Amino acid sequence: MSSAHFVRGPAYGLSAEVKSKLAQKYDPLREQELRAWIETMTGRRIGDNFMEGLKDGVILCELINKLQPGSVRKMNESTQNWHKLENIGNFITAISRYGVKAHDIFEANDLFENANHTQVQSTLLALASQAKTKGNQVNVGVKYAEKQQRRFEPEKLREGRNIIGLQMGTNKGASQSGMTAPGTKRQIFEPALGMEHCDTLHVSLQMGSNKGASQQGMTVYGLPRQVYDPKYCLNPGDEQLYELYNSA
């Protein structure tokens, strides 16, 4: 099987745009740091082209074996493409067991077919961070925070149920003292200002005005109400005048 079967053609349209954006995120400074770390750990020289030097998977397998001996038991130094892909697959499986998260791990084609070098770089940075967290001397990556698990006695947990947390808010000492029952009349004034004898029978202009309107003449709810204007309509008792008006 020739290498031509594993090489993709040029990308066009949206694929070319996505590939260009991924390439822009690649950090050359991080590449130098990773190169120095990997070459120090494995004792091998990667070469001028960083990704091409890692494409056969041999250096990657040696790297994880230095971090955790016995992670990859068999390394293929053959020039056959399937042997190179097998090495990359063994490396991916080994770093997953080592503790690198699945979303940080690249796929084999990202390296072998030059599909996403940015993701390969992110995986190596995540591996360096995991190695630093485990106590290895690594000058690249960050050290992950260790899990701090706390255990409380059952008595402490029961006491906490009786305390209202600040996240639930506070009423700052407010209460419903002095509140009247729903539906009853309530006078709103401030006793401290001497308003005990304030006039509550008149409606202030600030509360609006009904302009003299009233409910005088209104019928009780549910009773029929005759609506007519005496100027244009005769009263119900003026039947004789109505007959005279029609006979004229």
UniProtKB/TrEMBL annotation:
Domain of life: Eukaryota
Domain Calponin-homology (CH): 28-131
Keyword Repeat attributed: yes
Xref: InterPro entries: Calponin-like, Calponin/LIMCH1, Calponin_repeat, CH_dom, CH_dom_sf, SM22_calponin
Record GO terms (molecular function): actin filament binding; calmodulin binding
GO cellular component: actin cytoskeleton
Keywords from the named record: Actin-binding, Calmodulin-binding, Phosphoprotein, Repeat
GO biological process: actin filament organization; actomyosin structure organization
Record family assignment: Belongs to the calponin family.
UniProt xrefs under PANTHER family: CALPONIN, CALPONIN-1
Known role: Thin filament-associated protein that is implicated in the regulation and modulation of smooth muscle contraction. It is capable of binding to actin, calmodulin and tropomyosin. The interaction of calponin with actin inhibits the actomyosin Mg-ATPase activity.
Protein name stated in the entry: Calponin
